[in-house]
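Hey Z.,

So I finally got round to the Phenylacetyl coenzyme A thing we talked about over coffee. Here's the setup:
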Amino acid sequence: MATAGIQTNPDEFQERIDAGIKIEPKDAMPDAYRKTLIRQISQHAHSEIVGQLPEGNWITRAPSLKRKAILLAKVQDEAGHGLYLYSAAETLGVTREQMIEDLLAGKAKYSSIFNYPTLTWADIGAIGWLVDGSAIINQIPICRCSYGPYARAMVRICKEETFHQRQGFEIMLTLSRGTAEQKAMAQDALNRWWWPSLMMHGPSDKDSKHSAQSMKWKIKLFSNDELRQKFVDQTVPQAEFLGLTIPDKELKWNPERGHYDFGQIDWDEFQNIVQGNGPCNQERLQARISAHRDGAWVREAAAAYAQKHPRGARRSA
Ligand code: FAQ
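And the result:
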């Protein structure tokens, strides 16, 4: 459980936020601010960890040694992101054990996007291009969020996500410029990953229960719909460059708004996945439960080693 920290006057706290002063772990903060951060950062960490699974599925089947090395490095980066984020959440008084227990018990959320299957190699390109592309758009503003450890963790994560997005786009480019069969694979991957990538940005602003308060506290700097729009505006010209068609008949440039208009998102599909009933929810959770069980001996060995070699003893040796 999160420990309640030093309490603060909400008005004074808001003044600090408005003045752009970063909140640090030992600072006074309202309990609700602490709880919101624990919720968002732990969900974010779980997403990075579960997010390794769809791509990990293709490490042994990558089409060349070079592709395999790149994919392996990318998946390892995602593991690292999960660890920085668990560490950032721990500064708020929650333990890593508690966060992982909540994930494995199905109580904690992780991003809806990772509950879809990766059916072909082109899906690895689509994930890098669209999923990491969405992640960057969401996460670059978080580098400026009000909570210091979260903002700082996000700087390195964003640098790595940029590389991930480029590698995904490059896979899509290779397939799009390849044989007719390869181009069809790229189009099929875009067809399947487009709408889930839009959903990844969360419910529409009118249904987003946390956005207003999170924006006031500068945990979120832009709303879900604003970031979704940014993603669409950025990605449509990239799809055109690839010669691929975005699967949305209503997608159209709106010169008055200066943005692309796009079709209705299937919010029933989104809710179904968030409630645990997507195509791969059970499989993803089961994979994490097995990994945790099979890794028990590593945790025990690390704890035994730490007991035998306390930090102080090592330093003075
Ligand atoms: N999936 O009121 P809001 C990545 C939940 S990292 C599942 O709008 P909020 C890297 C939400 O938790 C991807 N649940 O919530 C990578 C809340 O439920 P609660 C993850 C969702 O927090 C790439 C409820 O709906 N990124 O991709 C989703 O203000 C490739 C109401 O929603 C982050 O976590 C969803 N998509 O806004 C890794 C970024 N959306 O908690 C491997 C940081 C909403 O009340 C391979 N997070 N919900 O039970 C955020 O910016 C926010 O938390 C949002 C949601 C925007 C995700």
